[in-house]
Fold Lactoylglutathione lyase.
Amino acid sequence: MKEITRINHIGIRVSDLETSREFYEKIGFEFIVGPVGPEPVAVMEHPSGININFILNANQADLENVLMDTPVKHTGYTHMALEITDIDSVKSQLESKNIPITGGPITLPDGATFIFVRDPDSNVIEFHKAA
């Protein structure tokens, strides 16, 4: 459909709002509102316009990501990729905030480079520097 213009938001089910909020603030997101609604939901937004809705109804904290960490490969979204301008700067900032890099850096033949981290609920975030 040509009417689609961009992704409006990403929904992530989390086990604890304060823990998730603290993590995403470390990578530049700002708290907007929440919890609100019947689920309930809290909203954070990055100055670049990327919006995350935290769905606050997880049954429990689970360090295993069923989409990424189990031998059975389930369908579903496996990660979000945030485009960045400087991989070395992002690596340095992550390290200074005690956010471990869980994968990479990986460089593709075209020169694109990326690294991965996990949020407190083991959701995967890719920081992607295009070629």
